[in-house]
Each structure stands twice: as C-alpha cells, then as structure tokens.
Amino acid sequence: MSAPLILVLNGPNLNLLGTREPEIYGTGTLDGLETLCAETAEGLGLAIDFRQSNIEGELISWVHEAQNRAAGLIINPAAYSHTSIALMDAIQALDIPVLEVHLSNIHKREAFRHHSYVSLAADGVICGLGFAGYRLALIALSDILEEDQ
Ligand code: DQA
Fold it and tell me: What are the structural domains, with CATH classification, of the chain?
C-alpha cells in the first residue's frame, strides 16, 4: 500500500525564510523546512507534497486539489490567515483533517495577527514553535489518520 499523502502548503513570503526577519522566523530556509518535513513524514510512513505560493488563488486551488489527492492538509497561510475568507471557505469544504501552523506565536505579536480566519476551519492550530511546529503537525496527523482507520 502506498504511503498516505499529506499536502503541506505555505503562503506568501515564506519563500524568503532564512533572510526575512530572522529574529522572528529563524535562519532556516524553506528548502530546509521541506527536508525536515520529508524526513519526518518518511519516519511516520507518510508522503508529503510540499508547496509555497505568494498567490491567494493558487493556494485556494491547491486546497481544492487536496480533497481528492491527500489524506490530510498542513497549511501555514501566512498573512492570508488574517485576511482570506476565501481560503477559509476552501478549507471548510474539505473533509480531510487540516492543521494550521505558524512559525511565530501570532498571539504574542501585533493585534491584527491574533485573528485567523483559517483557524475557524482548521481542526487544530500550532503556533510559536518554529520549524518544530510542522514536525508536530505531521505527528498529530499521523495519529488522527490512524484513529480514523
Ligand atoms: C506566519 C505569521 C503571519 O502573521 C505572517 O503574516 C507570516 C508568517 C508565521 O508562520 O508565523 O507570514 O504565518
């Protein structure tokens, strides 16, 4: 049997990881984050499809794609968390488990980051743990998928 696929989506500006506000997001790159996710997934018997886009509509189309292709979704919607009802609606339409991840603790930052539309649709949220948040999200999804069997 092939490994269940987890779609890992990253929103705007996350391609700049490593150089963008390293005091907030750390010095690790998006490529490094993909490697961490791939290694973690392999250890859990999962496969990942890891993507990043700066375009809201592209992220929404990828969320739609997840319904038929993926067993679960991990998404860091970045700034679209705080603005995008369309992304929230797309996630709401999924019936696979969805975990939202933020590298930084959005609740410790500016007030406009405290609210996430995506959190209204996600099954769980991890924030403030840096790259480890993605690793923990994969572990949690693996548990959820096992429970569902
Ligand atoms: C972020 C937090 C968002 O508020 C911000 O716009 C980002 C990254 C995070 O991972 O901490 O781009 O989602």
Answer: 5-147 (3.40.50.9100)
CA of 106 to the centre of ligand 1 (A): 7
* Secondary structure E strands in 34-144: 47-52, 72-76, 98-102, 124-127
* 111: CB partners within 8 A, 6+ apart: none
Catalogue the active-site residues: 25, 102
CB of 104 within 6 A of ligand 1: the answer is: yes
Residue with CA closest to ligand 1 atom 13 = 78
Which helix (H) or strand (E) segment holds residue 36: the answer is helix 30-44
C-alpha 51/C-alpha 131 separation (Å) is 15
What is d(CA 16, CA 30) in angstroms, rounded to the nearest whole number?
A: 7
C-alpha to C-alpha distance for 41 and 44, rounded to whole angstroms: 5
Digit-coded pLDDT (tens) for 93-143: 999 999 999 999 999 999 999 999 999 999 999 999 999 999 999 999 999
